[in-house]
Structures are given as C-alpha cells and as structure tokens.
alanine--tRNA ligase
Amino acid sequence: MDTDSILDHGTERILDTYLDFYRDRGHRVLPGGTLIPPPGDPVLFTTSGVHPLVRHLETGHHPLGGRLVNVQRCLRTTDLDEVGDDRHYTLFEMLGSWSFGDYSHEQSLRWGYELLTDGFGLSPDRLYVTVFGGTGELGPDEESRRTWTELGVPVELEGENWWSLGETGPCGPDSEIHVWTGDGPPTGTPGTEPRWMELWNHVEMRYRRLPDGSLEPLPRRVVDTGMGLERLVTLLSGVRTGYDTDLFLPWLSTARRLWGVHGRTERVVSDHLRSVVALLGDGVRPGPTGRGYVPRRLIRRVLTRLWRDDDTHSLSELPDELLTDTLRHFRQPLDTPVREVLLDEQRRFGELVRRGRRVLGRYRGRPLGDDDLRYLHDTHGLPPEVVTDLYEEVS
C-alpha cells in the first residue's frame, strides 16, 4: 500500500493499516482505550500508551496473551498554556504494541521498519535511528545497532536512549526512530537538525531498577513500542502540524465559521472542545474537584476566549454531526449527552462570570495578590484562573 492510497481515507485508514499489520502477526487488539486509569491508580487520567499495562511489566505476563496492540487515548493538563503551538495537544492518541515474553526486540525493530516502509510507504532514506549508547553501568545496545545496520538505516549511539517508569521498576534500552520532514535529501542528525521528527520508540525492558540503584534482570523481557498518532498522520499528510490534519480541521473550520476565531485561539478552542467530548464519552462529568474539574476547566477556558470579543457566542451552535463524528472516532457511545452537558456548564459559567465582573470592578487599578485570590475564591467562589482572565477584562 502506498501513502496516497492511505490518505484517500485519512486517519481512519491509517489506523486500520496499523492495527491490521499487527493482527496479521498474531497480536490481539486490547479493548478499551479509555481515559480512565485502572482501579487503584492514583493518577486522574491515562497519560501514556503503556499506562494501563504498567502492572503487567514486572511479571512479563498479560492475561490476554503475549502479543498485544492498541490505540490508547491520553490526556495531559500539565502544559495547557502550551496548547495551540505546533506540537502540544491536551488529548492525544498513542499507537502501542507489546510482546510479553514472546518475540524479541530485534523482531519488533524489523516489523517497525516493515510497517513504516511497506505499510505506510515511507522511503527508507528518510529514516534515522538512535539506540542506547551505554553508560558506566551497561554497555551499548549492540544488538539493536546491528539490526538497524542490516536494514540499511543510519544508526547513532545515544546514552539517553533509556526508558524507565521512575527511579525504581522496569527499565531498559530503546530505539528511537526519526523521520526526515524537510524538503530535499536529509541532512544532519536528530541532535543537530530540527527537521528530523521523532516518531516511534521501541523499548526492551530487560531490567528492574532496585531501591539501592542496582539493576537485576527481569524474569521475562517485555517489548513496548509507542508512536503518536498525531505525528504519524501529520507526517503522512505532508502538513506542518497535527492541527492541519483531519483530526482537527473539522473543529477548526467550525470554530472559525461560528465564532470568527483565528490563529492560536481557534486551535485552543478546537483542542479543548474535542478533548471535552472525549472525556464525556468516557463517562467523566464536570464537577468542582478531582477528575470532574478537568472538563469544567477546559470548557471555561474555551468560553473565556469566546466571550472576550462577543459574549453572545454559545456552544449551542456546535453542529450535532461534529459531536457525533468525534465520539465515533474515539469509539464511544453515540448517545453521550454532550450538548446537554456543554450547555449546562455554559450556563453555570455565565452566572459566575457576571458575578465575577461585578466583584472585580472593585479591584480596578491595582494588582491582585495571593491574599486577594484566596479571598475571591473562598468568599465568592471565583477560581484563580477565572479571576486572572476576568481581571484582564475589567482593568
């Protein structure tokens, strides 16, 4: 299959190509993909492709078998202020494949090369790989370097090519596959030339890091690969960012048409609303604390931007087809009450904004300190991020 035929069907065709490739090689597709972590996990949302499988890494066994593949949606809110640039999204999807004590890391690398070149039509000349270069503790990953050399891909040793869960636990060397995104023949290396894009990591978890800092071999090695869907679709579409792909363009065009937003604002509005739909599809409902505060905060960030220029803008204008298509993409229940939740949150926030503007009018002309923010929150129920946005309006 060549790249043009893949793009005839956009992202969904790319996903089918990926999953079919691993199905044909005996992998079982993991169910779910939900943003809600497994029971007992203290983290609010799934933040990486391997997150739902972490508890199986130590043993090297998974109840569904030794060969697994999935598409995992993930959500991160630690860098919301960066959303809207060329590479940050609140919600993103990871393509993952695993071998739990089954095939070797070398096999994973060879399949990865095959999928990128034969499956997705990328020229081998556009690939460059970095592998673990060794430390004082361990030598370089010669097996991976030898495999890539046999495949004819330029390979570089890099000491930082090491994956771990944290200070303790499963860990091991990884191969990072980079793809040339510039015009003309590749130049430089990923460390010196920004037009090399890191696309796919293949990790072999060989060891367990102990509390005393030493390493011991794992009883069964686990191969874990992860590739960002947004990056893959961007690459295969020949565009500059994920916001220029069919993952985001329906949202961007809708925001522009309904509310006249442009540039970074249309990206933030589209990213946040798309993320909220996925959260609602996974059963999360807005609330004042914990998991529920994330969709509430995202909706308020959207409305704050829309109401800066025109407070008559309303989320009621969102077309049903866009909401349904987003739920369908994430394989979520189509009867999720997205519109009802959005409008209820809009009503709540509208009341809060009206009250906040009246209160903050008293502070016009002087800076707000920490004591002011605490007072406004405890007495008037105004969250600090809302106060900050409203204060810019009234000052």
Residues 44 and 328 are 23 Å apart (CA to CA). The chain has two domains: 3-239, 249-394.
